[in-house]
Amino acid sequence: MSSEIAVLTPADTEKMEQTEAASTRKRPREGKKKKKEGRKVAKKMSWTNKQRALVFAARGITFHARHLMNDLRVLMPHSKTDSKLERKEGLFAINEVCEMKNCNMTMFFEMRKKLDLYMWLSMVPNGPSARFLVQNVHTMDELRLTGNHLRGSRPLVTFDKTFDEQPHLSLLKEMLKQMFGTPNVHPKSKPFFDHIIGFTNFDGRIWFRNFQISDEEKGGLVEVGPRFCLWPIKIFSGSFSGHPKRVMTPGNT
User: What residues contact 46, with CB distance under 8 A and at least 6 apart?
Assistant: First the structure.
């Protein structure tokens, strides 16, 4: 009786090892696979509008103006701050400060003779820029209104219809909208709207109001503050430079 001995080649041993590894590998359960297929994967929204506003002031402003600046900074979660600008430095140096802070727009406050408060709005570095005289200032601490909204929530920025009637008002509308509008999915913002920032053009001035949305169904609003009005004086084609497009000094009236 003859017995034959099978001789395995290296190729056969390699195939046997592959089959053993495949058999010992864990197979995915069908139930988990079905759950993963039925589950909807939520898309993570990306932060695309990376606008940043630099809000600061020149040396020599009063405490009243400083409180107004801090109130506006609270309403703008996309804002940054910096130390006070020295008087010997020119306004054009603000463009360099914005570049170092990685900001593409700025709100700058300055005072003249400890009486008149001026606000600059500028789109850095190419402009335009506008200068306003700030009047009728009432901060949140002064008003102590009953309205309240969460810090960092996104506002609904509204304008009346007169902003579309004149070219310089349309330009100021776009500048104010970019300045006070919080970018979507900003890291420091809340993903909902619970207050309204309104701008009204009346008597040659732009009036600022901030309201809390108390009742969404009935449209109830409660004022939060602060209050102030902006008197447009000059609009420049560049950032703190260029030929003024509109000149309106308070002394003309």
Answer: 185
In this prediction, residues 139-167 reach a mean pLDDT of 91
In angstroms, the CA 79 to CA 145 distance is 24
- Residue 134 has a CB neighbour count (10 Å cut-off) of 18
Residue pLDDT, tens place only, 188-224: 888 888 999 999 999 999 999 999 998 888 888 999 9
Which of 162, 133, 148, 121 shows the shortest CA–CA distance to 210? 148
In degrees, to the nearest 5, what angle opens at C-alpha 139 toward C-alphas 220 and 216? 15
pTM of the model: 0.77
Q: Write out the DSSP string of 124-156.
A: TTT--EEEEEEEEEE-HHHH--S----TTEEEE
User: What's residue 67's pLDDT?
Assistant: 95
Contacts of 65 (CB under 8 A, 6+ apart): 57, 109, 111, 117, 134, 137
Closest to 90 (Cα-Cα) out of 108, 104, 105, 102: 108
Q: Which residues neighbour 52 within 8 Å (Cβ) at sequence distance 6 or greater? A: 78, 79, 80, 101, 102, 103, 104, 105
If one counts every other C-beta atom within 10 angstroms of the C-beta of residue 224, the result is 22
Going by DSSP bridges, is the β-strand pair 227-236/244-247 parallel, antiparallel, or unpaired? antiparallel
3-state secondary structure of 91: coil
**167 SS3 class:** helix
Contact (CB, 8 A) for 136 and 190: no
